[in-house]
């Protein structure tokens, strides 16, 4: 695959919106090359992982939708055993920390969007990655669960993954109180070992000499103005409202299987 330069990427050409209904041909080929993702592999992989789900005591009573299982197959490049191991890690996480997956507060999450606590920026990077901006960490664990799970419904995000901008300079004192070993481990374990996400880059603003150095990695059109970009007045609250719909929350991470009586 060719290398797409962030300095020359343009909206409508290399830069695509965060929400997409179809996957462009370029990225379908990328998925085949990088993830071994083909129609035949999808059919075979789904059949094999469903068999593992059905025969394992930890997962046999949980129902997973096909598009959810595909996230794990893609992130593990169709190594079904590794995909299933990661899926079981998620099941264990839900059992141990149920509050991370339930009782989402609509008002709190919409406020987090308005306050830009955590934002899925409206334009993707030139290589298709979703750009995640985190400026505060309060209740970020629960917000991350919902944001990552719901954004991973999109095949474009499954194929290309995420690039994260973590602004530790925004309020260092408020960040510091959340940096306990327990909190940091839980964030790492849940996002890296349980959720089927591809993390391509993580940028800590505190390590960048100036925010403008982000332009070496991100298209200017896709970055907010405070980081040297052109983007202003971005607001993800409408997307948050959509993902908070009951039908979208119902199967978050799998639902109990309906038993025949």
The number of helices is: 11
Q: How are the strands of the biggest sheet laid out side by side?
A: 2-3-4-5
Provide mean pLDDT, rounded: 85
From the helix content, strand content and strand pairing, which structural class follows?
Answer: alpha/beta
The Cα radius of gyration reads: 19 Å
* Stretches with pLDDT under 50, minimum 5 residues: none
Helix content: 40-55%
Shape: globular
Element-level helix/strand string: HHEHHHEEHHEHHEHHE
Q: Tally of extended strands? A: 6
The percentage of residues in β strands lies in 5-15%
Instruction: Describe the main β-sheet briefly.
Output: 4 strands, mixed
Distance between the termini: 52 Å
GO cellular component, one term: membrane
GO molecular function, one term: phosphatidylinositol bisphosphate binding
Domain CRAL/TRIO N-terminal: 65-90
Protein name: CRAL/TRIO N-terminal domain-containing protein
Describe the structure.
With 261 residues, this protein is an alpha/beta fold. It has eleven helices and six strands. The chain has a four-stranded mixed beta sheet, with helices on one face. The protein has a two-stranded antiparallel ribbon with strand order 1-6. The longest helix is centred in the first third of the chain and has 17 residues, at 39-55. The termini are far apart. The mean pLDDT is 85. It comes from Caerostris extrusa (Bark spider). Residues 65-90 form the CRAL/TRIO N-terminal domain. This is CRAL/TRIO N-terminal domain-containing protein. GO terms for molecular function: phosphatidylinositol bisphosphate binding.
